C-alpha cells in the first residue's frame, strides 16, 4: 500500500507491504537510522518516536496507521538553525548516555514526558520513563538530564 | 592546567544525541548494497535428535536465496572447551536457541516467513536442565565424554580445616543465571572482496579477537579478514570476540557469493546470546565468637550451559574467593558441568561477582550466628593496609587497599547507626514494612587476563594528534578519557586529538575491552606511545632551536617545545616539530605489556524496605564507595559506577533466566525477563576515595565492573537483614516477592 | 520480529467496520490501539489475514454523561481517559486505572475498548469495569445490544461478542460519592499484574485470579453483611483457582488477593 508520513517536517511517500512497521518505514524508507529496535515485545522503548506529538513505540505501530500523520524522530528534534533541544544538551551535560543505543528513544520519551509534566520530580521522571530500558547508566543520570532539561536544578 | 581529574563531557555524544550512533543495522556502506539478509532457524527443544530437515518448502518461498544446514558446512568443527560445538546442529540439539539452519533472503521481511517453513523433525531426549541434574549424570549430554563434568579445578578439601572453630556455618548459595541483554542485540554484516578478503562488521568488544576467531573458524589466514567495528550498543562481556554464529555468517557470505546482513531478534537473543553467572556455591565459614574467622571454604559448581565456552569463570571465582579478608585458611575448588541450556560466558564481573556474593553472604551468615553486627565482623577480618602487597591463599596478589577506611566512610555517610536505630524502632512497633541494611565490602581483579594492549600516537604536520588503541570501547567513553590523557601529556587541546579504534587494518594488534582493562592497559599503552613520540620530538625540536637534545623540554601547559632553563628563549610548536620531522615520522606504535592485574575495592550499603505481607522489596538507598585509584574523568567514572550499581541491584532483586524441568526457557522475551527499569532503582549515593596502584603507567585500576560486584551482595544482604528478626537466614537471588513470602511462610510453619 | 503477511483496511466509521466484518467474518481482526494484538502478531502467536484498523473512528472517542450513566467511547485512549475531567468526576476508578496501564507510550495508543475486547484476565481495565458493574455496548448487523460486564467475559481472551460485532461503548453508573480503591501488584511497575484488586463501593473485582476478571463474591457478601474490611478481605480468594506460574504460584496469588483486597477496601473507605 501507499503510505505518506510527514517525518521531521519532510513528506515521505512510499509503497510498502501492509505489514510494514512504522520503525522500519522511518529507518528504511525515510533513511533515518537514529531510531533503534531493541526488542520485539513493546518492552524496551528504544524505538520511541513522536506520533502527532506524542510518544509511541514505533515497533508497535504500523506504517499504515501513521499514514497521513506526523512523526518526529531524534533527527528532527534540533531547531531549524541546528540548535540542539534542551534534552539533547542535558543528556550530554549530565552523561545520560553511554553506548547510545537507547538514547534516541529515551530522549523522545522524555520530550513527551516533559510536554505533559513540565516540572517533574525525580520520581515522576522515573515513572514516566518506565517504558524505556537502559542497560548502561543505571538511569540516575538520565533522570538528572530530564530534570536539567526541565529547567530545574539537578541536586544529585 | 591539567584537565585530567576534571569533569569533561564526552566527545562521543555529539553524534549519539543528534543523528544517533552507527550500529550494525545502521551501516550504509556501499559494499553492502544489495546484501541479502540472514536469520538462523533455532532449536525450540532443549535436547533432541534431529531425524530430518526438509528445506524444500523454505527454498521455494519468496525471496529465498539459500537455506543452509550442517550438511552444507565444510568447515572443521569449532571447539567449546573439551567438546566440539557444531556451527549448525549436526544431528543433536543441546539447548533451546541452538542454530540448526541459516536462511538467506533478498528482503528483511521475507526472513521469518521463510524460516518458519524449514521443517525440522526432532526426537526429544531427556533434558538436563539444572546443575543437580547434570551432577547426577543420569543423562549425559556428551556420551563420548562419559560425564557432564567438564572441568575440575582447585584442591582437595582438608577434613580438619574447621577443627579449631567455635562456630561453623554452611550454606548453599545460588548465583542465578542472568541475561546480559545489551540494548543492541548481536549482529554483523560482511562482504568478500574480489581479492578473496573478507570485510566483516561485527557488534563486538574485541575486533582483533573477532578477526582471529573468524579466520580460524573459516580456516583462512588472519590477513584475509578485515574487521571493522561500528558503534556497539553495549556488550557487558557477552560480546567478547565473536560467537560461532558470526563464523557461519561469514561462511554463508562466501558460499552464497553475496554480502550478508544479520541481526538477531531480541527473543532470539535471550536464548542464543550467552548468559552469565549460573553458579551454585557452597560456603563454609568457621571462626571464633569474637568475630575472628579462621577458615573459609568455597565449593563452586559452574553451570557451563550446553557448550562449555568459558570455563575460566569458576577459576576466577576461586582466585577471588576470600575477598577483602585475612583468613588464615582458605580452600576453594570448582567443577564445571554442562546442561541443556544456553552456554554461559562472561557477564559484567565474570567470575568475581560470584566470589563476592558468596563471601559477603557468608560474612552475614557468620555475623548473624554469633550475634555481631555485620560491619563489626568485617572490620575484625579485613586485610590491613600494612599487609600489601597481600598474597591470598588462593594465589591472588593484591596491590593496594584501604578496606576498613572504605567501610567506615560508607557507614558514617549513610548514617548507619541511625538506620539501625530506625530498624529497631520498626521491629519494636511491629511495622509490617521491615527495614533492611545490607553491606558488601569487596575487592575485584581488573586487567586480570595478564595480556597487554597496543597504542599508537601520530603527531601530524598541522599539530593535530591521532591516537590508535587496541581497546574497543562501546559506551565507556574511552575516546574522551584517552584524549584527556594525551591532552595533558602533550599540551594539545582535546579538539585537536582524535582517538581511533575498531578497524583491524588501522589497529592490527589489540586485545580489546573486557575485564575492566581498557584504561589501565589501553591507557598505559597510549601513554607509553606518547612518551616515545616526545622523545623523538625532542631531537627534532633541538635541531629547530639549535640547542642540545638534553636541554629540550615540552611545556605541556602550552604545547610548546622550549630550552630548559631559558624560558624567554624561542619556542617551537608541535606543528613546527612535526612538519620538520615530515608527515608520518612523529609516530610511535607500542605494545604495553608491563601491566599486571590491579585490585579495585570498595564498600556498599543498601537500604531496603520489605513489605512482609506481600514480600515486595523496594530498594530505598544504595550508598557506594568504589576505589579504583586516581580518576581521569569523573563524568565517565561515575557513569560506570552508576551502571554497575543498576545491574548489580537488578541481579539481587529481579533478574533471572529460568528454565523448566524440560529445559524450556520461561523468561525468553523482554516481556518475561525482569530487566530492571528506572522505577525500581533509587538515586545512587556515591562516595569517593582514590588509592593508586604501582602496576601500570597511570596508577589506575579498572572501574567497569566494580560497582556491579559490590552492589549485588549489598542489596541481597539487605533483604535478608530486613527479615532476620523473623527468623529468615537466607533467601536465594533474585529476591522476588514470592521468594520472600515463601521464606517468611517457611519460618512461620517451622515455628 | 515481523508479523506474518496480512491485508490492512482502515475503517473510518462504525458502519464501515461492520461492513468489513460481515464481508470477511473470522478472517478479519479488529485493530484498535494494537498494543495487545501487534506484539502477538510479531511473535507469530497470531496471524490474522485481514486487519481492520478502527482507531480512526473518531465517533467512538468520547466521555460524557448520559442520565445516571457515564459513557465512554470504545476508541478512547488510556491517555485521554486518565486526565478526562468527566471521568475523574463520575468514575474516578476508571480514570485512575487508565493511568496505570502499561507505560506512557502504551497509554498513548492503547484504547479502553481494545483492552476490554481483548479480555486478558491479567489486564487492569476489564476488572475495573467489572467492579463498576459496567455495561458493554456492542453493535452488529442486527443492531445494538447491551451486555453486562459479568456476562461479557466468558473465558481467557474470550468474550460474548459475536465475530461480526464491534464493541462501541462502555457504560457505568455514575460513581459519584462511591468509595473506590485499586491495588495492582507487580514485580516491576511496567509488568502485568500478578494480582490486582479493584473496588467500587461494595463491589470487588480481581485481576489475574482466574481465566477472566472475576468478582470476589464472598468478600462482597461479607461486606454486605456488615463484616469489617479485614474480615471481608480474608475471603477474597474463596473459590478461586488462579494461574500457577514460576514467578507466582497459585497459593501466592491467593494470599496476595487477600492482602490487596484489604488495602483496596481501606482506600475505598477514605475516598468517594
UniProtKB/TrEMBL annotation, chain A:
The keyword Iron applies. Residues 1-77 form the 2Fe-2S ferredoxin-type domain. It holds the Pfam family Fer2_2. Its EC number is 1.2.7.4. Keywords: 2Fe-2S, Iron, Iron-sulfur, Metal-binding, Oxidoreductase. Coiled coil: none annotated. The keyword Iron-sulfur applies. GO terms for molecular function: 2 iron, 2 sulfur cluster binding; anaerobic carbon-monoxide dehydrogenase activity; metal ion binding. Pathway: Alkaloid degradation; nicotine degradation. It comes from the Bacteria. This is Carbon-monoxide dehydrogenase small subunit. It comes from Saccharomonospora amisosensis.
Automatic annotation (TrEMBL), chain B:
Residues 19-126 form the Aldehyde oxidase/xanthine dehydrogenase a/b hammerhead domain. The keyword Oxidoreductase applies. Pfam families: Ald_Xan_dh_C (PF01315), MoCoBD_1 (PF02738), MoCoBD_2 (PF20256). It comes from the Bacteria. GO terms for molecular function: iron ion binding; oxidoreductase activity. Keywords: Molybdenum, Oxidoreductase. Coiled coil: none annotated. This is Carbon-monoxide dehydrogenase large subunit. It comes from Saccharomonospora amisosensis.
Automatic annotation (TrEMBL), chain C:
Keywords: FAD, Flavoprotein, Oxidoreductase. Its EC number is 1.2.7.4. GO terms for molecular function: anaerobic carbon-monoxide dehydrogenase activity; FAD binding. It is an enzyme of class 1 (oxidoreductase). Residues 1-177 form the FAD-binding PCMH-type domain. Transmembrane segments: none annotated. SUPFAM superfamilies: CO dehydrogenase flavoprotein C-terminal domain-like, FAD-binding/transporter-associated domain-like. Pfam families: CO_deh_flav_C, FAD_binding_5. This is Carbon-monoxide dehydrogenase medium subunit. It comes from Saccharomonospora amisosensis.
Amino acid at each position: 500500500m501507499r503510505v505518506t508520513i510527514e517525518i521531521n517536517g519532510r513528506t515521505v511517500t512510499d509503497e510498502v507491504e501492509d505489514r510494514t512497521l512504522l520503525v522500519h518505514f522511518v529507518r528504511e524508507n525515510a533513511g533515518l537510522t537514529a531510531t533503534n529496535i531493541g526488542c520485539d515485545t513493546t518492552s524496551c522503548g528504544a524505538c520511541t518516536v513522536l506520533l502527532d506529538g506524542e510518544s509511541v513505540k514505533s515497533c508497535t505501530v504500523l506504517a499504515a496507521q501513521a499514514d497521513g500523520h506526523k512523526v518526529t524522530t531524534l533527527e528532527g528534534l534540533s531547531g531549524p538553525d541546528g540548535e540542539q533541544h534542551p534534552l539533547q544538551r542535558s543528556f550530554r551535560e549530565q552523561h545520560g548516555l553511554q553506548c547510545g543505543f537507547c538514547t534516541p528513544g529515551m530522549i523522545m520519551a522524555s520530550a513527551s514526558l516533559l510536554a505533559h509534566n513540565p516540572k517533574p520530580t525525580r520520581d515522576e521522571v522515573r515513572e514516566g520513563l518506565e517504558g524505556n530500558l537502559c542497560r548502561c547508566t543505571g538511569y540516575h543520570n538520565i533522570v538528572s538530564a530530564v530534570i536539567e532539561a526541565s529547567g530545574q536544578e539537578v541536586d544529585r | 592546567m591539567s584537565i585530567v581529574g576534571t569533569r569533561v563531557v564526552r566527545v562521543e555524544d555529539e553524534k549519539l544525541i543528534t543523528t544517533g550512533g552507527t550500529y550494525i543495522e545502521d551501516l550504509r556502506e556501499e559494499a553492502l548494497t544489495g546484501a541479502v539478509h540472514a536469520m538462523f532457524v533455532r532449536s525450540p527443544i532443549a535436547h533432541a535428535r534431529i531425524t530430518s530437515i526438509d528445506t524444500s518448502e523454505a527454498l521455494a518461498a519468496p525471496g529465498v536465496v539459500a537455506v543452509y544446514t550442517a550438511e552444507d558446512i565444510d568447515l572443521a568443527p569449532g571447539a567449546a572447551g573439551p567438546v566440539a560445538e557444531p556451527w549448525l546442529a549436526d544431528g543433536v540439539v543441546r539447548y533451546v536457541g541452538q542454530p540448526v539452519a541459516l536462511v538467506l533472503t533478498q528482503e528483511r521481511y521475507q526472513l521469518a516467513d521463510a524460516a518458519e517453513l524449514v521443517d525440522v523433525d526432532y526426537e526429544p531426549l531427556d533434558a538436563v536442565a539444572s546443575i543437580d541434574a547434570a551432577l547426577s549424570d543420569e543423562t549425559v549430554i556428551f556420551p563420548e565424554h562419559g560425564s557432564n563434568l567438564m572441568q575440575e579445578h582447585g584442591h582437595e578439601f582438608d577434613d580438619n580445616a574447621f577443627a579449631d572453630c567455635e562456630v561453623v556455618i554452611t550454606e548453599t548459595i545460588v548465583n542465578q543465571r542472568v541475561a546480559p541483554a545489551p540494548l543492541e542485540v548481536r549482529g554483523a554484516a560482511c562482504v568478500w572482496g574480489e581479492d578473496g578478503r573478507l570485510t566483516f562488521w561485527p557488534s563486538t568488544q574485541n575486533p582483533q579477537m573477532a578477526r582471529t576467531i573468524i579466520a580460524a573458524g573459516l580456516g583462512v589466514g588472519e590477513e584475509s579478514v578485515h574487521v571493522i567495528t561500528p558503534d556497539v550498543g553495549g556488550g557487558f562481556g557477552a560480546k567478547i570476540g565473536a560467537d560461532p554464529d558470526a563464523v557461519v555468517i561469514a561462511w554463508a557470505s562466501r558460499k552464497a557469493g553475496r554480502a550478508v546482513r544479520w541481526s538477531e531478534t531480541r527473543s532470539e537473543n535471550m536464548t542464543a546470546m550467552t548468559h552469565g553467572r549460573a553458579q551454585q556455591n557452597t560456603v563454609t565459614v568457621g571462626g571464633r565468637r569474637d568475630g575472628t574467622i579462621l577458615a573459609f571454604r568455597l565449593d563452586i559448581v559452574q553451570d557451563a550451559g550446553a557448550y562449555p565456552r568459558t570455563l575460566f569463570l569458576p577459576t576466577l571465582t576461586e582466585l577471588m574467593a576470600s575477598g577483602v579478608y585475612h583468613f588464615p585458611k582458605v580452600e576453594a575448588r570448582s567443577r564445571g558441568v554442562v546442561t541443556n541450556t544456553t552456554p554461559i560466558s562472561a557477564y559484567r564481573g565474570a567470575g568475581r561477582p560470584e566470589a563476592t556474593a558468596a563471601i559477603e553472604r557468608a560474612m552475614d551468615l557468620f555475623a548473624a550466628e554469633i550475634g555481631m553486627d555485620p560491619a563489626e565482623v568485617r572490620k575484625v577480618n579485613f586485610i590491613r593496609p600494612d599487609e600489601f602487597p597481600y598474597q591470598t591463599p588462593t594465589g591472588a596478589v593484591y596491590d593496594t587497599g584501604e578496606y576498613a577506611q572504605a567501610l567506615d566512610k560508607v557507614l558514617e555517610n549513610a548514617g548507619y547507626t541511625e538506620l539501625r536505630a530506625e530498624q529497631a524502632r520498626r521491629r519494636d512497633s511491629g511495622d509490617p514494612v521491615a527495614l533492611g541494611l545490607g553491606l558488601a565490602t569487596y575487592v575485584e581483579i581488573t586487567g586480570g587476563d595478564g595480556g597487554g594492549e597496543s597504542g599508537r600516537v601520530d603527531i601530524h604536520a598541522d599539530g593535530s594528534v591521532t591516537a590508535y588503541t587496541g581497546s574497543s570501547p562501546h559506551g565507556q567513553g574511552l575516546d574522551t578519557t584517552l584524549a584527556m590523557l594525551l591532552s595533558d601529556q602533550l599540551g594539545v587541546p582535546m579538539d585537536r586529538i582524535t582517538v581511533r579504534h575498531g578497524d583491524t587494518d588501522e589497529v592490527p594488534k589489540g586485545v580489546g575491552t573486557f575485564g575492566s582493562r581498557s584504561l589501565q592497559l589501553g591507557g598505559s599503552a597510549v601513554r607509553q606511545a606518547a612518551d616515545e613520540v616526545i622523545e623523538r620530538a625532542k631531537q627534532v625540536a633541538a635541531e629547530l632551536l639549535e640547542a642540545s637534545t638534553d636541554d629540550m623540554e615540552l611545556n605541556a601547559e602550552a604545547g610548546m617545545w622550549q630550552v630548559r632553563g631559558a624560558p624567554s628563549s624561542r619556542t617551537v610548536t608541535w606543528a613546527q616539530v612535526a612538519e620538520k620531522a615530515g608527515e608520518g615520522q612523529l609516530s610511535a606504535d607500542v605494545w604495553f605489556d608491563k601491566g599486571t592485574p590491579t585490585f579495585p575495592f570498595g564498600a556498599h550499603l543498601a537500604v531496603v524496605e520489605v513489605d512482609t505481607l506481600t514480600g515486595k522489596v523496594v530498594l530505598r538507598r544504595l550508598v557506594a564507595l568504589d576505589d579504583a585509584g586516581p580518576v581521569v574523568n569523573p563524568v565517565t567514572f561515575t557513569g560506570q559506577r552508576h551502571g554497575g550499581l543498576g545491574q548489580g541491584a537488578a541481579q539481587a532483586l529481579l533478574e533471572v533466566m529460568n528454565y523448566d524441568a524440560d529445559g524450556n526457557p520461561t523468561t525468553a522475551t523482554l516481556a518475561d525477563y525482569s530487566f530492571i527499569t528506572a522505577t525500581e532503582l533509587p538515586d545512587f549515593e556515591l562516595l569517593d576515595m582514590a588509592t593508586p596502584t604501582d602496576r601500570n603507567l597511570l596508577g589506575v585500576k579498572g572501574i567497569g565492573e566494580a560497582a556491579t560486584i559490590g552492589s549485588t551482595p549489598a542489596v541481597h544482604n539487605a533483604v535478608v537483614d530486613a527479615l532476620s528478626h523473623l527468623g529468615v537466614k537466607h533467601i536465594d537471588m533474585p529476591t522476588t516477592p514470592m521468594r520472600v513470602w515463601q521464606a517468611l511462610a517457611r519460618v512461620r510453619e517451622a515455628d | 520480529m515481523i508479523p506474518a503477511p496480512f491485508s490492512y483496511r482502515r475503517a473510518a466509521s462504525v458502519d464501515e467496520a461492520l461492513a468489513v466484518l460481515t464481508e470477511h467474518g473470522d478472517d478479519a481482526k479488529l485493530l484498535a490501539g494494537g498494543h495487545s494484538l501487534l506484539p502477538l502478531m510479531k511473535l507469530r502467536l497470531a496471524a490474522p489475514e485481514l486487519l481492520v484498523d478502527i482507531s480512526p473512528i473518531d465517533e467512538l472517542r468520547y466521555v460524557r454523561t448520559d442520565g445516571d450513566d457515564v459513557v465512554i467511547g470504545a476508541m478512547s485512549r488510556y491517555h485521554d481517559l486518565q486526565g478526562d475531567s468527566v471521568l475523574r468526576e463520575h468514575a474516578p476508578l476508571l480514570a485512575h486505572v487508565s493511568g496505570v496501564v502499561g507505560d506512557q507510550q502504551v497509554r498513548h495508543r492503547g484504547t479502553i475498548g481494545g483492552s476490554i475486547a481483548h479480555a486478558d484476565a491479567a489486564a487492569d481495565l476489564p476488572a475495573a469495569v467489572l467492579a463498576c458493574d459496567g455495561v458493554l455496548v456492542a453493535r452488529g448487523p442486527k443492531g445494538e445490544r447491551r451486555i453486562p460486564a459479568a456476562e461479557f467475559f466468558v473465558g481467557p481472551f474470550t468474550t460474548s461478542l459475536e465475530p461480526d460485532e464491534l464493541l462501541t461503548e462502555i457504560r457505568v453508573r455514575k460513581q459519584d460519592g462511591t468509595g473506590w480503591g485499586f491495588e495492582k501488584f507487580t514485580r516491576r511497575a511496567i509488568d502485568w499484574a500478578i494480582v490486582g484488586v479493584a473496588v467500587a463501593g461494595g463491589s470487588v473485582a480481581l485481576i489475574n485470579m482466574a481465566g477472566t476478571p472475576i468478582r470476589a463474591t464472598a468478600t462482597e457478601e461479607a461486606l454486605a453483611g456488615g463484616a469489617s474490611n479485614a474480615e471481608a478481605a480474608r475471603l477474597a480468594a474463596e473459590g478461586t483457582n488462579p494461574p500457577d506460574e514460576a514467578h507466582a504460584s497459585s497459593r501466592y496469588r491467593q494470599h496476595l488477593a487477600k492482602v490487596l483486597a484489604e488495602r483496596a477496601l481501606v482506600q475505598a473507605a477514605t475516598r468517594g
